[in-house]
Design a protein that fits this description.
The complex is a heterodimer of chains A (about 150) and B (about 425). Chain A is α+β, with helices and mostly antiparallel strands and about 150 residues long. Helices cover about 45% and strands about 20% of the residues of chain A. In chain A, strand 2 and strand 3 form a beta hairpin. In chain B, helix 7 links the parallel strand 7 and strand 8. Chain B has helices at about 5-10, 40-50, 60-80, 95-110, 130-140, 155-160, 185-195, 205-210, 215-220, 245, 285-300, 300-320, 350-355, 370-375, 395-415; strands spanning about 20, 25, 25-30, 90-95, 115-120, 140-145, 170-175, 200-205, 220-225, 235-240, 260-265, 265-270, 325-330, 340-345, 360, 365, 380-385. In chain B, about 55% of the residues are buried. The chains are: A alpha+beta (about 150), B alpha/beta (about 425). The interface of A and B includes residues 3, 37, 66 and 121 of A.
Chain lengths: ~150, ~425
């Protein structure tokens, strides 16, 4: 597995022009997630209207993998249901922790397929998961009716 | 200096340095994180386990006597190595963090509201958090040395602001910064601390492995360091303290071997250093540390310091030509250790690290357990390359080449850097 395979063109594209970046109103829940080992930080907001994710906005500092992964995730989940987003999370996590043995359905996951290479680099799994974990946390808070981050 | 210092002979003592990482030879530039181990250290640990293993102090048999002699022999070797006046001043701990926690916890027993503890913004978290905890517990106030724009300790500012004053009870400062490489004027600060009756604690985690150490020259009352950064094993650290100070302090952890008499109504405690060594100690690790001290002493700490100085100057010069590279900390090899932190424009440290790793170059990326310093420098994180006694000029060349490659990889494929933070 070469480093060029890790840094797929799609990943670098999302790193260069991040989709849905910036913090926006309105939102239901805002969460702040960090990766203590490298100092990556992410503030992420979700807005859910009638069970549909109407917006995911975020402010992030971090490496290309974490930035691009958050960008791809936001594109995938906006406009879909919370349940669908949580299912996408489960599948993405299974793949990223699958040490290269689990692949994603390209129809369902689109650009996120580019992160299959990350699964071969255990040190970068946390980077790829940062945005996804924050999204999941935020949606679970919305479902639980928790408005503020504890 | 380097003419006499045969780095190739040194490298033959470290089998790991012959490793290939994919198609590339290993270029290990992460010694400020942990050093590699020479054969002699690994052999000493193996020999201890295979031929002399027993618990110390309490086992009344031949092996117990041998293990005790080995453990106490390590203590004496450490004392000699750092110029301590007696071996009872050397307390073994798990690592430098535990040593600093021991210092903060026991010295903390004397603190109260209105008292002040002084650290610096360039400290490793292990010389910040224990003091924060001590201050939270006691109501004392934590105050900070700032740094100058060049990354040196701002003594002038400290004097102007009356940082060290009659309320100061403890000053705890790193000897050599693990990020900036800055060598601090510890003796000068110790004199400032002593002039107000404060205790001077020094974090020697980076300093002791790199520079000849003499606690009297440092002028401190306590010195913490760790074994694994000086070619020794993990799992052992040292807190040196002047005997009178140690004798006046309460215990840290309770348990076996740290007591004098235990009764149900209360216990009395052993004299130093045993008062601070509860439970079975890192015996094999002490043996390994002893071997490491023998090893670096045979090379000569002066020679090691000169070699590192030479390599650091060479690296600073080479790195200054890499496009978009900014060095954090002194850019001249004056009063400077072998850790060089830097940022590369438009490329996150994690990505730099990954690209370098793909060419066998091992460095560290992140905040290096010094988040307040990174906040002070206005960067979220950085990369760090660090040299040691086995580092070569060729390795520095490979680092610089890999950094050029990394810059080109990202700027070439990222046509604009506008979206990159």
């Amino acid at each position: 597995m070469s480093v060029e395979q890790l840094y797929q063109e799609i990943i670098l594209d999302h790193y260069r022009v991040k989709r849905n970046a910036g913090l926006r109103d309105p939102y239901d829940v805002e969460v702040h997630h960090v990766n203590p080992s490298c100092g990556d930080e992410l503030t992420l907001r979700v807005d859910v209207v009638d069970g549909t994710i109407s917006d995911v906005s975020y402010d992030a500092q971090g490496c290309s993998i974490s930035q691009a992964s958050t960008s791809v995730m936001s594109d995938l989940v906006i406009g879909g249901s919370s349940e669908h987003a949580l299912e996408l999370f489960d599948g993405f996590q299974r793949m990223i922790q699958g040490q290269g043995k689990v692949s994603l359905d390209e129809e369902t996951y689109g650009d996120a397929v580019a992160f299959e290479g990350v699964a071969q680099f255990p040190a970068r799994v946390k980077c790829a998961m940062l945005g996804w974990s924050a999204m999941r946390d935020a949606l679970l808070r919305v479902q639980a009716g928790v408005k503020e981050e504890s | 200096m380097s003419d006499l210092y045969d780095v190739e002979a040194v490298r033959r003592e470290f089998p790991i340095l012959a490793r290939q990482i994919g198609a590339y030879p290993l270029t290990y530039l992460d010694s400020a994180n942990t050093s590699q181990k020479p054969q002699a250290v690994v052999d000493a640990i193996a020999d201890h386990y295979l031929s002399h293993n027993a618990n110390v102090a309490r086992a009344m048999h031949v092996l117990g006597a041998e293990a005790t002699a080995a453990f106490e022999g390590a203590r004496t070797a450490v004392a000699d190595f750092i110029g301590a006046s007696r071996s009872e001043e050397v307390v073994f701990t798990k690592n430098a963090s535990e040593a600093l926690n021991l210092a903060a916890h026991t010295l903390g027993s004397r603190l109260g509201p209105g008292d002040e503890v002084v650290v610096s913004v360039m400290e490793h978290h292990s010389n910040i958090v224990p003091w924060q905890l001590a201050c939270e517990r006691t109501g004392a106030t934590l105050r900070w040395f700032d740094i100058t724009d060049e990354g040196r300790l701002d003594i002038e500012g400290a004097v102007r602001d009356g940082l060290i004053n009659s309320r100061t009870k403890v000053v705890s400062l790193t000897w050599v910064s693990n990020v900036l490489g800055t060598v601090n004027p510890v003796a000068q600060v110790a004199a400032m601390a002593h002039s107000v009756g404060a205790v001077m604690v020094v974090d020697g985690s980076q300093g002791v492995p790199q520079l000849p150490t003499d606690v009297a020259d440092l002028g401190c009352d306590m010195l913490a360091f760790t074994g694994h950064k000086i070619c020794g094993p993990t799992g052992i650290g040292v807190l040196w303290g002047s005997y009178d100070l140690l004798e006046s302090l309460p215990p840290f952890l309770g348990g076996g071997e740290m007591i004098e008499v235990v009764r149900m109504t209360g216990s009395t405690y052993a004299p130093p250093p045993y008062r601070f060594e509860a439970g079975t100690q890192p015996i094999a690790q002490a043996v390994g540390l002893h071997a490491a001290i023998r090893y670096v002493s045979a090379l000569g700490m002066d020679q090691i310091a000169a070699h590192e100085h030479d390599l650091t100057a060479y690296a600073l010069e080479g790195m200054s030509h890499v496009r978009g590279l900014r060095i954090l900390g002194p850019t001249e090899a004056v009063d400077r250790g072998g850790a060089i932190s830097f940022t590369l424009d438009g490329v996150h440290p994690h990505d730099v690290m990954q690209l370098l790793d793909s060419r066998g170059v091992a460095i560290r990326g992140g905040h290096h357990c010094a988040r307040p310093l990174h906040d002070r420098l206005g960067v979220q994180s950085s990369c760090r390359a660090s040299v040691y006694l086995y580092t070569t000029h060729d390795e520095i060349d490979r680092l610089v080449e890999a950094l050029d490659y990394t810059g080109a990889f990202f700027s070439g494929r990222l046509a604009t850097t506008g979206g990159v933070r």
